[in-house]
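Slide 14.
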Amino acid sequence: MKRERLQEITQKYSGLRIGLVGDICLDRYFEIDPKLQEISIETNLPVHNVTRIRCQPGGAGTILNNLVALGIGSIHPVSIVGQDGEGYELRRSLEKLKGVDLSGIIETPQRATFTYSKPLLMHRGKAPEELNRLDVKNWTPTPELLQGQVIEQLRAVAEKVDALILLDQVELPETGVLTKRVLESVREFTSDRPDFLILADSRRSLRGYPKVSLKMNEAELSALARSEGKMDPADAIQKALLLSEEYGHYVFVTMAEHGMIGAFQREVERVSALPLRGQIDIVGAGDSVTANLAAGLAAGAGLKEALQLAQLAASIVIHQLGTTGTASVKQLAELLVGSPFLED
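Slide 15: predicted structure.
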C-alpha cells in the first residue's frame, strides 16, 4: 500500500457513519502496588491495595473505542446496560467518546451491566501482571421486551449508517444482545439490501448467522467448517473461499503469527503478520481488526488493503500492555513506513 493510498482511504473516515450492535461491557482495571501488600487481621489472607482504578468500554465497546480512535464521523451503538453502579460508570465512559450517539443504548433494571474487573500487579520496568479476573454476567435469557427494543433500535440505526458491525461477546446463548430473534430481524432486512456492509463476529460461533460478512479466528473457522485438527493456511484459504461463495460476502480469518486471510467470492488475499517489537498483550487485537476492516471497506478499500489496515492495527494494539488498546490513523501511517506492506 502506498502512503498516498492510506491517506486517500482514511481521509474518508470523518464522513462515515457506522453502527455497532452487541454486548458493550465495562472494563475496570485495578492497579495494585505489590509493595503495599498487607495481611488481613480477620482472615489472615493477603490484601492487595489498589492505587488506581481505570474504567473504559469493553467487549463491543473495544470496537467502539477503535472506531473513535480512527476518527469515524458518527458511531451508533445498540446495546443493553443495567441500571446499576457499573452501568453508571460505563455510561460515563461512553459519554467521553467523540462522535458516539448513545440513543441506541437501552438501560434497564432487568439486566446487570456486563463487567470485566481486571486486577493488575504493577511492577516497575515490567509489563503489568494480570490476576484472576472478576466478571459480572447475565445468566438468564434476555427478556422478550428487551429483544424487541434492540430490534427497534437496530432497524433505526441500519437506515442511517454506511456499515454495521455485529459482535456477540457472551458465552451463554440467548443471554446477550444478539439473540436468535435479533439475528432473524437482521436476516429480514438484509434480503432487501444485499450490498449493505454488515460484518459479524461471535465469541461462540457464527453458525446460523444471516448471510453477511464474517470475521473469525482460525479455531472458529475450524469449528464452523466442522474440521478436525489444526488447520494450516492453505486449508484455511480453501474453507474461507467456500464460505464466501456460500454467503456471497467477505470472509476474514485471523491466524496469529500466520497473518490474516480475506476471501470475497472467488477472490482471496493473505497478508503476513508483522514482526514483534517487544512484549505483547493480545487482548483487544481481534476487535481492532474488526473495527479496521469495517472502516476500511466502508471507505472503499480493496480486499488486500482492508487486510493490511487491520494487520497494522493489530500489531499496534498487541504492543500496548496492561490495557485494551486502540490504533489511530497516525499510528497506522507511522507503522506502514518500513513495513513489508509499504509500496513505493
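Speaker note: DSSP finds ten helices and 16 strands in the chain.
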